[in-house]
Amino acid sequence: MEEFIYYGLLFDIYKKLLNNKSQEFFRLYYEENLTMQEIADNFNVSKSYVGSVIKKTEKKLDELEASLKIYEHRHFLADLTKLNDIEKIKQGINKILD
Fold first, then answer.
1. From the DSSP assignment, how many helices (H) and strands (E) are in the chain?
2. CB under 8 Å to 40, separation ≥6 — which residues?
3. What is the pTM of this model?
4. Are 3 and 57 contacting, i.e. CB atoms less than 8 angstroms apart?
5. Residue 38 belongs to what domain range?
6. Residue 6: what pLDDT?
7. Total domain count for the chain?
């Protein structure tokens, strides 16, 4: 379940960097909770093709996050907002900027 939420969040961040087919299949699977078979039936393709597109999309999302680190930085910044120590907040911001 945690992986499902993680990829949903990555998709929200990076979806505009994906091609249309990847966006549609991924959205249907992760946001609409359709099964791979239901997606395959809707698009007249095989279930294995849908699975392949979803796996490739997950890999692409992982690569984008590894390079751009938007998800990681958002969570780090969210943690910084909970601090009351201005020096620690400054250090955290500088860590992101470096």
1. 6, 0
2. 46, 47, 49, 50
3. 0.81
4. no
5. 2-97
6. 93
7. 1
